[in-house]
Target: Type II secretion system F family protein
Amino acid sequence: MTGAALGGAFGLGVVLLLAGVRRLKAPSLASRVAPYVRDVVASPAADPTSGVSAAWLVVRTRTARVVGELSGGAESVRRRLDRLGSEDSVEEFRVRQSVWGFTGFSLCAALSILAWSGMAVNVPALLVLCGLGFVVGALACDQHLTSKVHRHEQRAAEEFPVVADLLALAVAAGESPVAGLERVLRVSRGSLSDDLGRVLGEVRTGTPVADAFLRLAARTGVPSIARFSEGLAVAVERGTPLVDVLAAQAADVRETTRRQLIEAGGRKEITMMLPVVFLVLPVTVVFAFFPGYIGLTMST
Model:
């Protein structure tokens, strides 16, 4: 422990010395010219090409590239990011995944140092443990993204009947699909509203209404929303009455939700019997037979 403390102090001193030398050297040409051209170009960010920040940036970028090459699945990550409606790219997700991996590695390394200093432990086993910590951290980041996508789509499926009914009312009142969608989005908040907001943004930038809804159907993972988007695109292209389409879609989703609730109740029936069998029934048996047992004991 004394050696570890001395080594940490020495490393901290070296880092502070390098930071001081970097601060004392002459300013660069970009930092001297920037105040005079600030209204022409954006202010340059801190130069990441020197010092500890450059080393960390290089390590993080290369680790993210290695993690992406080993795990593959760039298309899967891109698909999940699209379903979530995230603005992050696959490279940014890989960088975040590598940070999670480094966090797991650091925790395992700290535990390994404590175990090695307190008892005789096999060093290769500790190195394997640190590697497993990195892998577990990277996999945890991937699983976190998957769980976020599932929660987003579950909330969107729950919001869909209400949004479909509101859109049907707006269209029935004489508004166009885009105007009705704008009115619905002004009064609704949620996951489905965010997805429909992306559709509305694409329409405003010049994308045809049918193509925007077909893109929503392609990237969503909720079957009911995909059918709704495809049906709305077909109705816009062919002139089918939108009110009937939207009402039928909302009724279909409500019937699907009702069927899922009945199926979930049927699956949970055995689980619901567990407290009855293992808690209520034993207490009832004890209350029924215990007075008789006490009476027999006292009589004998």
Summary: DSSP finds twelve helices and no strands in the chain. Confidence is low (pLDDT under 50) at residues 40-50. Residues 100 and 140 are 8 Å apart (CA to CA). The first helix runs from residue 2 to 24.
